[in-house]
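User: Could you check the structure of this?
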Amino acid sequence: MSTAREHLDAVFANLSDALQLSPLTENPVIQSGKHAVMYHLVNSVPVENLGKNRLRDTTWVVAIISPLTNWDTAVNGLEEALDDVLDVLEQEPTLRWTTAAFEPFNARLWCYSVEVTLYNEVENDIQPAEPLVELSSMTVKALRAHASDNNIALGGARLKADIISVLES
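Assistant: Sure, the predicted structure tokens are below.
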């Protein structure tokens, strides 16, 4: 699971009981008396930074879906559900939303679609490279120990130059 998804999951943990989170599907099952909230990542872009961690802006589409199939009855409850979702989104300082549009979700359901951009810090989990071993400065005994430590078979090499050749290959 991505850090960005975990971040947005934490934001949506504050939704009211009138809303249910739904997995990404074309035909959500919506509990009676509730509206569904579904979201998916649409893009991720790096944010320039010089620190040890990486920063990203991730853009998500959030759909607030009505269980009602008739657009004129769906829109009223959806407006309230939209306000509830926007209130939760606006509590997160690293999040921006734009353009809440009323539209069909599928052939029978209606929704508000909201574009959300979330600023995320991704911890740098790249380990620094081990310093290169200067083989030519090592003794034959040290070279053999290095080969043994790294499970490298020397194949009968005895001379320093031959051992280094095997290690470098």
